[in-house]
Task: structure prediction
Amino acid sequence: MSGETSFPVSLDIPVRWRDLDALGHVNNSIYLTYLEMAREAYWNALGYDLRPDGYGYILARAECDFRRPILAGATVRVRLGCPRLGHKSFHTEYRLEDAATGTLHAEARSVQVYCHFPTGETFPLPGEVRAAIEKLEGRAA
Result:
C-alpha cells in the first residue's frame, strides 16, 4: 500500500451473523461487501449519491490482502482514501481494522471508473468530482 495515502473517511460496520462462515469468522467474500459499503460512504462524503438513473462509478478492479480473521461480535472500521486520480478513474486504498482495538485485519485496493449507469458508457472524471476528491483528501489548493 502507498505510504502517502491518507484515510479521510471511515465507516464502522458491525459483523452480522450472516457474514460468518462455518469456521466462525467473516467469510472472505464479505470483505468486498465491506469495501463497497465504505466506497458509498466516501462518495456520500464527496456530496454525491448513487442512483441507477444517473452518473457514478463502477468497480473495475479489487484486491485484498488478508492479515487476521474477523470474528463474530466484532465491529470493523473500514478506513479509505484516494491516493490516485486517473483520467476516467480513481483509485482507493483501504484498511480494515477492529474498531475497538485497531488490530489490522486486511488491506485492500480498488479502481473505480466514472460512468453513466443507464448506458454503461464511461466518461472522464468531471472537474467538480475531481475537485471534491482533492478537497476531501486535503490536496486542494
